[in-house]
Amino acid sequence: MTSCRFLVINGVVSHSSDVPPVSTLLETQSGAYTTSRTHNNASCVLFWERHLCRLADSVRILCESKPEFILGSQNTRVSLFSSSSLWESTIRPLVNDSLSKALPIALEKRNFGEELAITAFVSGNLDKLNDEENLEEVRISRVLDVYVHVGIYVPPVFGIRENGAHLALVGCGRDVARAKFSDWVRLRKCLEKFRPPLATELLLSNDGDRILEGCVTNFFVVCRRENNEATGEYRHDHKSGYSCEVQTAPISDGVLPGVLRQLVIEVCLSKGIPIREVAPSWSKRELWEEAFITSSLRFLQHVETIRVPSSWEFLESETWKDVSWEEMRFKEGPRIITAEIETEIMVRAGLEGYPVSNII
Ligand SMILES: *[C@@H]1O[C@H](CO)[C@@H](O)[C@H](O)[C@H]1NC(C)=O
Ligand SMILES: *[C@@H]1O[C@H](CO)[C@@H](O)[C@H](O)[C@H]1NC(C)=O
């Protein structure tokens, strides 16, 4: 089987017969990125406007706080600045231009039933400046390299329930979590030594109790409301009719503002499902009814098991084998709230897809 991957750099189609997987591109270069995919027989790109806005935000945040995450580690002395119109004026037309060249080629090679995974990656390249230019103040728009990587994505067959996720908490929250950047792809490899067998996603926490997010997903629990201590009564929201609430860590705790994370919040608000942005607390897990993780490629995936080290000292350990784990297994059966949110997100995916015909 020949690999079906396509790469356009600054509007120029790469004719390399062997375009690397997107993970290789991200591991070898510093920059901000976002990944979405097509939907409905490759007729639209899922939530593409939101992805481009988040990409521009990531670039701006990195420029302001961690320019080396855009320029590569050897360039820590350069001061980058961006303008508030970076998104409209610079990033959007550059990404659109490269995407408009990648999509027709990829669509032609696509087989029946396949969709396309699309990654837009923005990196800083100081070689674009003249030698004598002052590196004290570099306008980011002058040094941008824009990559659009397109690969084939085979969505799970509709109607067949996907397997649940098996999560393990293995490390601390990220630096500049509000931006999605490629150096994290390299950094998160250090966590792999703690990955127990069969764990499908790794969770992050700064204290071993309050769970922030997954390495490549956002994390949610559906939590029964706590007893009212004064009356001993179970708190029931008569207005909404729900006796539980959805919880996910707030952005201010240091989590990625995932596109799907934001959609889950919007769906809960519009459906009247109680939602609270608070980091789910492992010590209150007896109240957890359901849990799920979100990502742009797979939307929602329900959680089957979560493992957490019984002591936070585990960070000193060498491998997962040296860690003693506490495990929680969710009960089988219908996951009512997760299913309700997922159904509504599928509806919005249809409504908020960016038509491919507007790009090519
Ligand atoms: C899917 O798209 C392809 C190419 O655009 C088209 O030939 C095919 O008929 C479409 N399939 C369906 C089921 O719409
Ligand atoms: C994207 O680029 C294509 C091709 O250059 C152009 O036809 C289209 O109008 C552009 N779309 C947007 C939204 O800028």
TrEMBL record:
Leader peptide range in chain numbering: none
Organism superkingdom: Eukaryota
Pfam families: Aminotran_4
One Gene Ontology MF term: catalytic activity
PANTHER family linked to this entry: D-AMINOACID AMINOTRANSFERASE-LIKE PLP-DEPENDENT ENZYMES SUPERFAMILY PROTEIN (PTHR47703)
Protein name in the entry: Class IV aminotransferase
Species: Tetracentron sinense (Spur-leaf)
